[in-house]
């Protein structure tokens, strides 16, 4: 990866003082473990042990005859042929392909507008647009769900006020877009803040040099600002991709408001949840979760590689 | 997957920022460009989008159940019932809302407080110590972050139920103690904020590692700690999935789970529809966090730009 000037936020650069300052290697000792030890102990309990246990579970199956038996990769074979799993996966991929670009684009435009310094009341904009992040997904889904509602929601109000019949956002055709709107609302501010933080550390001397050279605002954005925050954009994309694949809260909560539109296998996460907690199929549920984990990691890795290749 | 963003630029920012502020008033140009009405209006569209649901919530929490159904959603109507709604929310079902509120506070104090504490210690170790296995620690933590939460949820539930922890506060608190994002943020923050020379002179004076940490390093980590604390607070306050699988007994519910239970009540046969209480309860649920973000703005915004990255 080459580093153009201005120095872009480089993905994969860790603060590793030991590597830069050989002098410090003399102080290499176990005392660091006094500080990292507690974190790693809890981490092993709540991350590593469940992952290992999950992999273990996925190789077994509770059969009517013979009880719990080792079945090798049979659960994995079943997942790959499971049409409910595929339909949930396709649904989140569709969601991802539309919602993530829209959300990140809006967040980026707002961050650029804030960073340009041309807004009246900049800090009011910044804090207000960020506020939805502090709203729990449960409250966000309930609020939007009520607003979508045709009974006491805004959609119902508009229908009765103008005597028209807007399509119901909670109907099966529109529910995915309606969930996309909720997620976009929740996370525009969060992503905006990431971009804004990255923009605000670009040295101002670069702007000045560009303005003296007569560069337009548009050139300033495309030639200086966007390349400089590429790292932040890649990170935001990766986390949005992971978030989309894990979509659970919003559909799970809207289920009671729109029972006909959201099935038990609406997203892979909801499917894994229903399998374990309604169906008691723990082994199969663990397998679905592992397959989703692997798919998520592969895609997140691909996004990262792509982001880094563009940079060079 | 590594999520680091070059930390060295943050140092430059911190030292040069006061300079801009002073120049702002005297110079036009890069630091003080002409304000644009058009741009403000365009960005205003997003501002309205961000605030409308919150305004809706505020307006509708002042309505009775009847006027909820009969009036326009974005304006007040009927009796101003905000205070009676709050009273009803707090007293409904023997005051269970208060119990949920206290549970949430417990989960936040223990979970977010503990997570911040572990992240500060760990980030400090990664930033300022060289120890055997450091690279392995890094690789394992980064690798595990990419694993989706649900891949962990089911096995964690099964493990905890064998240990007898499900349906107790521990089942919610223990998994909240790990914040890889907090660890990362403290790591970048500590490598910038604590000069190595300071630690070395403390060691040469014979101070123990813990004494050095508490007396010298901790005070320097202030803004970073506030930032990590705020973000772990949001994560635990807003947590839904983890308590959903771990808790059966409504007495241990946090607010998020309780509100959803109230909402579901309307769709169960013979259930009492209490939409006005769901809406007022939602308002009461988000107020503390919004207040915390507004009051601590100065700290978390500076802490974040030091990391210049997010979870």
Characterize the structure shown.
The complex is a heterodimer of chains A (312) and B (311). Chain A has 312 residues and is mostly helical. Chain A has 14 helices and two strands. Chain A has a two-stranded antiparallel ribbon. In chain A, β1 and β2 form a beta hairpin. In chain A, α11 runs antiparallel to α14 and α13 runs antiparallel to α14. Chain A is globular. Chain A starts with 16 loop residues before the first helix and ends with a helix. Chain B is mainly alpha-helical. Chain B has a single domain, classed as MetI-like fold (Orthogonal Bundle), CATH 1.10.3720.10. Chain B is built from 15 helices and no strands. The longest helix of chain B has 47 residues. The N terminus of chain B is likely disordered. The interface between A and B is large, with 125 and 123 residues.
User: What is the residue-averaged pLDDT of chain A?
Assistant: 80
Biggest interface between chains: A-B, 125 and 123 residues
The profile of the biggest β sheet of chain B is: none
Number of strands of chain B: 0
The CATH superfamily label of chain B reads MetI-like
Query: How large is the radius of gyration of chain B?
Result: 24 Å
DSSP helical segment count of chain B: 15
- State the major sheet of chain A: 2 strands, antiparallel
How helical, in percent, are the residues of chain A? 55-70%
User: Structural class per helix/strand content of chain B?
Assistant: mainly alpha
CATH architectural category of chain A: Orthogonal Bundle
Question: Which features would summarize this protein structure in a list?
Answer:
heterodimer; A: about 300 residues; mainly alpha; MetI-like fold; two-stranded antiparallel ribbon; about 65% helix; about 5% strand; B: about 300 residues; 15 helices; disordered N terminus
Brief overview, please?
The complex is a heterodimer of chains A (312) and B (311). Chain A is mainly α.
